[in-house]
Predict the 3D structure of the following.
Amino acid sequence: MFIVKPLPVPVRVVWRHWTHSAGWRMKVNKHGLADLKKLHRQALAEPLEKSVEPAGKPNHALKNPQGRPSDSGITAQTLTPEDRALFKRAVRTVKPLRPSNIVILPPTPKAHPNVLRQKRQLATGRNPEPLSQRFSDHYHPSQPQWEPGSYLRLGNGPDVLKNLKRQKWPITASLDLHGATLDEARTRMEQFLQSCLAHRVKCIRIVHGKGYGSREGTPVLKDSVRRWLTQFDAVIAFAECNEQNGGAGAVQVLLDLPKTQSID
């Protein structure tokens, strides 16, 4: 008796293809590579424009404003014709700025003559002129006042005083002399005016009080401050403030600032 045994069926072994990405492959974008190659061929086909530079002068186009080479390591010698062509294609739609958009800053203005005189005296080792000699308590202006409590320097029209009262120029600095003696008020006002000129402050306010608390019963500091202001060269005009800014106890002063130098 014979027993027929079936022959073993060969087993087909399928090995999984191993990749570095755990069994999956990245799909290649053939269209993207084709586009890059097409752009590269177009860049090579375009004629290069020759840049004309003065003879004997180095090319500073790739230097920063301080004149040093760029930190990226790219220089005019390392650029290939392909790089230049690609750069020109990238900036072909860029429009240059109009000359009207260029802002030229004015030079630093000259200081007022009073400020320069004080600086020269300090630089040469001399003491500045005593304040009592510059601001006299017995001085009276030669021209009559336009209105009580106001002053306008000769050479200026009445519209200046009207615009000052209408607050055409905003008050940007203020000095309060309440409780100060005449000598203290004179020194503080002198320093305040010099500082305003140095910082180009056009319109200021000086609070002197109404003088109701003086021993003599008359406003001593009020009259002295206004008399001193008429002796200061940089004062164009002054007038009493409105009630919101002090009324009769304060004056708003318009200063003559030095003119800036014009650019030729």
Observations:
- The domain at 149-255 is CATH 3.30.1370.110 (Ribosomal Protein S8; Chain: A, domain 1).
